[in-house]
Amino acid sequence: MDQIAQPGRFDQAWTWFSQAIVDHDSFAGYFQPFIQLLLPQWSTDAFRAEVIEVRDELSDMYSLVLKPGPHFLDKNWPDFKPGQYVELMVEKDGARTLRCFSISSSPDYFKRTGLIELSIRVQAQGRITPWLKSALSKGGIVNVSAPKGDFLLSEELKQLPLLFIAGGSGITPFRSMLQQLAREEFHNADIQLMYYSRCANHIAFEQELKNINKQLPNVTVHFIDSEQEGFIDAQHVRRYCSDFSQRTAMICGPAPMIKLARRSLAELEVADDAVLFEYFGAPPIEIDAAEQGVVSFARSGVVSAQQEGEQRTLLEQAEAEGLNPVSGCRIGVCHQCICQKQSGVVVNTRTGETSDTGPGEVQLCVSVPVGGVVLDL
């Protein structure tokens, strides 16, 4: 486990000096409002990025082409590794909102052009992804975080035979990885990609992936039409990747697809340590049907019940009942959706931790109820 570096004496002294002079933890933070007069959206805890293009990919998917650090006074955005993500920060209705998106372009593309791409699937009932497309236009400014995440193509993994399993917009980190391998002309790459799409004419980056398939002799892309072939199972794995037992699997996509993929690989006796995965949203957990959650929103006077076999987060249940609690990333990173639980048991799907029955803080976006739960909302 990585150890957290403790601040040095110089850092502590500088913070004390800043607090004594300007009553702020840093001089930059104190002068931030003045800097923003010259550089809108400038922030001490994020990087400015200019919107270069908003490009349609599919009827329900678009790519934001961004240029981090567009002005010479901006901070330099750090390099990233294929598979990492960023937190995108925007203001909607006067409130700062944060969402996490995988970087779908390669590090080499960033090095050559100074640009990154975030390819975003529109969530039909979402508050942010449909709005972003119309709210952002060429020349606009947004904030992004430094690159984050450990679902990445490391130098060690590059040398191994790999099985990529992607569902829908889960292709985005794999696109970054494959783009980078193609730019490096890394012909030793040995990858089988099983890419599940809604139907045969709803495939993101289809032509690009076909070109990479041709360019790298040991990379094979299998486009799988879920409408015709159904969802992933052990038979699919055997059919499309007969040497699966010799490969390290990497899975990315919606939670139900990842759950099926992991179950299929386990059925084929693939070791847990040979399976890497990244969820888009809250990971699923196993809850007995008799323990399906009923959530009471105390201040709103609303009650929400899970249906049998259903697993919705506290945030999803609140929004389904017309409530609008504060939220940000929706994957348990930003902690904007913390709410006070008055009673009941919840499971944090990100950490796997189960709460006790008493009062306490919970993250709405990654917590699911077990039995009856009362929230101060």
The mean pLDDT is 85
CATH homologous superfamily title of the largest domain: Nucleotide-binding domain of ferredoxin-NADP reductase (FNR) module
Percentage of residues in helical conformation? 25-40%
Our Rg estimate from Cα atoms comes to 22 Å
CATH architecture of the largest domain: 3-Layer(aba) Sandwich
Number-wise, the strands total 16
Element string (H = helix, E = strand): HHEEEEHEHEHEHEHEHHEHEEEHEEE
- How far the N terminus sits from the C terminus, by CA atoms, comes to 36 Å
Low-confidence stretches: 1-7, 17-30
What is the strand arrangement across the widest sheet?
A: 4-3-6-1-2-5
Number of domains: 3
CATH class of the largest domain: Alpha Beta
Question: Looking at CATH, which topology of the largest domain would you report?
Answer: Rossmann fold
Structural class determined from secondary elements: alpha/beta
Q: Give the helix tally.
A: 11
Overall 3D shape: globular
Task: Give the strand content.
Answer: 25-35%
Largest sheet: 6 strands, antiparallel
What does this entry look like structurally?
β1 (47-58) and β2 form a beta hairpin. It is built from 11 helices and 16 strands. It folds into 3 domains: 46-144, Beta Barrel (Elongation Factor Tu (Ef-tu), domain 3), CATH 2.40.30.10; 155-279, 3-Layer(aba) Sandwich (Rossmann fold); 289-375, Beta-grasp domain (Ubiquitin-like (UB roll), Roll). Strands 4-3-6-1-2-5 form a 6-stranded antiparallel sheet. The radius of gyration is 22 Å and the shape is globular. The chain has 377 residues and is an alpha/beta fold.
